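The following block was generated as part of the benchmark described in Methods. Ligand: cytidine-5'-diphosphate.
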Amino acid sequence: MNNHIAIAIDGPAAAGKSTVAKIVAHKLSYIYIDTGAMYRALTYKVLQEDVTLEDECAVGHVLHNTSIELVHGDQDQKILLDGRDVSMEIRGEQVTNHVSIVAKHRNVREEMVNRQRQLAKQRRVVMDGRDIGTHVIPDAEVKIFLIASVQERAERRHKENTVKGFPSNLEKLKEDIRKRDKIDSEREVSPLVKATDAIEIDTTSLSIEEVANEILQVVYDIQGKEE
Ligand code: CDP
Ligand code: CDP
């Protein structure tokens, strides 16, 4: 059985990528790599420093001098920024609303993609993001593109916020998701787009388990074929 495959999961904001990617990785004993967390960590640092988000050169310079580590624990993954755990901070509204501006820069994407390719070198990874199947691991054996309606995605985030006790406004979430998707899809360098050989799954009316099982079935079919 080929147990050294790479699984790329892409799609717009809140489509369920990280939730199902973690389940799939756990079931296969693969490593899960959250590439969005890397862009979020950089954005967090840039916001803290006296750097203009739109200044490609300055932002690239920050990244060049920044260490971003994904530490895999039993329960969850920790994001270390220059050795400090920023897993919670990078999920805040400030970072969410600015990350797509930072992620547009060509120099930032080039360096991030290099780092992500290093992490995926050994295969046995489930990597989620926007450009994994198209740029980071274009030869991934399994490519999935998850979508869901904006309404459904905003409702999911709203529910998540409410459970966590965070303030949340459904209309504002819809607007923010639309805005981020637009920037991510229209940027010049490796925009959010479905790879031609990716399998699209519309998760609007699917449960987390149904989506994870669908992806696992694709993996088992491939492994079976290569036996
Ligand atoms: O989880 P959520 O969908 O809110 O976003 P994320 O996966 O944490 O990614 C945050 C942002 O990082 C995205 O909106 C993109 O701007 C950027 N990103 C990217 O450009 N390329 C990736 N491979 C992953 C994320
Ligand atoms: O990583 P991404 O931004 O694509 O989405 P996520 O953070 O994995 O999922 C956003 C929210 O939707 C989470 O609260 C998930 O539990 C929920 N979800 C869902 O309700 N149904 C699915 N099929 C997938 C995710």
